[in-house]
Write a structure and sequence with these properties.
The protein is an alpha+beta fold and 380 residues long. The protein has helices spanning 2-23, 41-64, 71-74, 147-160, 164-173, 184-196, 203-210, 215-231, 233-238, 240-252, 261-268, 274-287, 336-345, and strands spanning 121-123, 126-128, 257-259, 290-294, 302-304, 307-308, 316-322, 325-326, 355-358, 366-368, 376-379. Among the domains are: 141-233, no CATH class; 239-379, Muramoyl-pentapeptide Carboxypeptidase, domain 2 (2-Layer Sandwich). The strands form 3 sheets. Strands 3, 4, 7, 8, 9, 10 and 11 form a 7-stranded mixed beta sheet that branches. Strands 1-2 form a two-stranded antiparallel ribbon. Strands 5-6 form a two-stranded antiparallel ribbon. A hairpin with a 2-residue loop joins strand 7 (316-322) and strand 8 (325-326).
C-alpha cells in the first residue's frame, strides 16, 4: 500500500511539472521560449542595433550645430563619425605582470587643401608672416591739402618770390599736417622771411635760419620741399593715385632718370606702385640724376625660399647710381650711398619704405646685407 501511494505521488508530480512547462510557468516567473530559437535572438540584437543607431545619430545632431563644411570637402570626406582605430592584436598580459592599459583614442584627422606656408622671418619668440595686400593711396583725403589753401599758398609764394614747396616745407616741418596747416597771415610771414634769407640762392642756409640753427630741422624741411616738388601741388590736393599717370610720363621722358628697358616697359604698363614712382622722382630732384637697375621685369620671383619679392608686386626698386656716382664702390661712411639712404629715410611718414637695404645700417627700416654692395634696395 505504501509503495502504491509513493508511485502515485511521483506520477502526479511529473504530470504537474509537464503542465507547468507547457503553460510557461516556473518558480522564477514568466519565460518567453522564443528567445531560445534562431528567430528569437533577433529582438535582443535588434535592440542593440537600434541603440547603436541612436548613438551614431547623436553626433549628427551635434554636427548640425557647427558651421557647414566647405563644398569641396563635404563630398570627399567621410561621415561625421571618427575614423576607425587601427586593428591591434592583443598580445595578452605579460608574464608576471598586470595587463597593459588600453591605448589612448586616436586624435581627430584634420583635412586642409592649403599647403603650410613658412614664415618670412622669425624674430624673437613668435614668427612674423608678411601677407601682401593691395596698398591704398598713401595720401587719403584726410592727409590732402585743401584746394583753397593750395591756391593761397601758390599766390602768396609767387608774390614773395619764393617757391611754394619751400614755404609748405617750413609749415610741415613745424608740425602742420592738417588740410589747412597754416593761416594766410602765417604763410605771408614765412614766405617773406624765406625771401629775405635768399632761399632761392641758398635754401640750406635759409632753412637753418628758419630752424634757429637746428641742422636736423633744415635737413627735414629740405627733404619735404623736394618731395613736394617731386609730386606737384595738384597731387597734394587730389592724391597720389590721381597723379600716377603724370608721374609715369615725367619719369619716362626725363633724360636724367636712367631705367633699363624692361623697367621702362613696367612703368608704361602701370605695373609699378605710385610709391616707387615718387621715390624715383624724389631721388631725381634731390641728386639731379638717378639710375634704376631693377623694378618688376628681370627680378627673380623669390627674395629667399618661399618669400615672394616685393618687386613682383611693383613695390620695390633697386637704385644703382645717384648724382652720376655708382653705388658700387661708394658705400663708405659719409659717402654718396649714406647721403641717399638718409634722404630716403626723410620721406614723409606716408611714403616711408619698409626696407632700405645697402651695406649700411642707419636705423629704422635701413639695414645692411652683403649682397647689396652695388645697389640700394627700397621696398614698400
Amino acid at each position: 500500500m505504501f509503495v502504491f501511494l509513493a508511485a502515485l505521488g511521483a506520477f502526479l508530480a511529473v504530470s504537474y511539472s509537464a503542465s507547468a512547462n507547457d503553460t510557461g510557468l516556473s518558480g522564477s516567473g514568466l519565460v518567453d521560449l522564443s528567445v531560445l530559437t534562431d528567430t528569437g535572438a533577433a529582438p535582443t540584437e535588434a535592440a542593440t542595433t537600434d541603440a547603436g543607431t541612436t548613438s551614431e545619430a547623436e553626433p549628427t545632431t551635434t554636427e548640425e550645430a557647427l558651421p557647414p563644411a566647405p563644398p569641396e570637402t563635404t563630398t570627399a570626406e567621410a561621415p561625421v563619425e571618427d575614423p576607425p582605430p587601427a586593428t591591434v592584436t592583443d598580445p595578452g598580459p605579460p608574464v608576471g605582470g598586470s595587463a597593459p592599459p588600453p591605448p589612448a583614442p586616436a586624435p581627430p584627422v584634420l583635412h586642409t587643401k592649403h599647403k603650410t606656408r613658412l614664415p618670412e622671418t622669425s624674430e624673437g619668440a613668435h614668427p612674423i608672416v608678411w601677407i601682401h595686400v593691395r596698398l591704398p593711396d598713401p595720401t587719403p583725403p584726410a592727409r590732402r591739402l585743401d584746394a583753397g589753401f593750395a591756391r593761397r599758398l601758390r599766390t602768396i609764394s609767387r608774390a614773395a618770390g619764393v617757391r611754394w614747396s619751400l614755404v609748405l616745407a617750413v609749415v610741415r616741418a613745424r608740425g602742420g599736417d592738417s588740410r589747412v596747416p597754416a593761416s594766410a597771415a602765417e604763410l605771408r610771414r614765412i614766405a617773406h622771411r624765406l625771401a629775405s634769407l635768399g632761399a632761392l640762392r641758398n635754401p640750406w642756409s635759409a632753412m637753418v635760419a628758419m630752424g634757429q640753427g637746428r641742422r636736423d630741422f633744415a635737413n627735414q624741411a629740405l627733404a619735404l620741399a623736394r618731395y613736394d616738388r617731386s609730386v606737384g601741388l595738384r597731387a597734394l590736393v587730389l592724391g597720389l593715385d590721381w597723379a600716377k599717370p603724370l608721374l609715369e610720363r615725367r619719369i619716362l621722358t626725363d633724360g636724367h632718370i636712367d631705367i633699363y628697358p624692361g623697367g621702362r616697359v613696367d612703368i608704361a604698363l602701370h605695373r609699378v606702385d605710385v610709391r616707387v614712382l615718387v621715390l624715383v622722382r624724389y631721388l631725381r630732384v634731390t641728386f639731379k640724376q638717378v639710375t634704376v637697375s631693377s623694378l618688376f621685369s628681370g627680378h627673380r620671383y623669390y627674395a629667399r625660399p618661399d618669400v615672394v619679392s616685393a618687386h613682383m608686386y611693383g613695390l620695390a626698386a633697386d637704385i644703382a647710381r645717384v648724382a652720376n656716382t655708382p653705388i658700387d664702390g661708394h658705400q663708405q661712411p659719409g659717402g654718396i650711398t649714406e647721403r641717399a639712404v638718409k634722404s630716403i629715410l626723410r620721406l614723409p611718414s606716408e611714403l616711408q619704405p619698409q626696407q632700405v637695404i645697402s651695406l649700411l645700417g642707419l636705423g629704422g627700416p635701413s639695414f645692411p646685407l652683403a649682397d647689396h654692395y652695388d645697389h640700394i634696395h627700397v621696398g614698400f
